[in-house]
C-alpha cells in the first residue's frame, strides 16, 4: 500500500508542476489553486509513504516519477525536443526507480 501511495504522490507532483507552468508566476488564479492543492496532496502522500519506505528510497522514487512524468509531458504537450539522448536519460531514471524497488527498500513498522 505504501508503494501505491508513493506513486500517487508522484502523480500529484507531475500535476503541480504542470499547474505551476500554467500559473505564469502565480498570476493566474486557477492554475495557482491547482498547484497549491496538488502540491499539498503530493507532500501528504509522500509523508504517509515515509512511514513504511526508507526516506532516501521514497524521495528518489517520488522525484523520479515527477522527473520522468514532466519530461514526457514536456515532449508531448509542450513540444519540447524528444532527442535520443533525452529519452535514454529518462530510461535511466526509470531503471533507477525499478532498481530501488527491487532492492527491498520497504521496512516494517509494527
Strand content is: under 5%
- Radius of gyration, whole Å: 15 Å
Note the gap between the termini: 15 Å
Overall, the morphology is flat
What summary fits the major beta sheet? none
Low-confidence stretches: none
Mean pLDDT: 92
List SSEs in N-to-C order.
HHHH
Count of helical stretches: 4
Q: What would you call the structural class?
A: mainly alpha
Write a concise synopsis of the structure shown:
This protein is 77% helix and 0% strand.
Give structural notes.
With 110 residues, the chain is mainly alpha-helical. The protein has one domain (2-102). The protein contains 4 helices and no strands. The chain has helices at 2-23, 29-49, 55-77, 84-102. α1 packs antiparallel against α2. The longest helix has 23 residues, at 55-77.
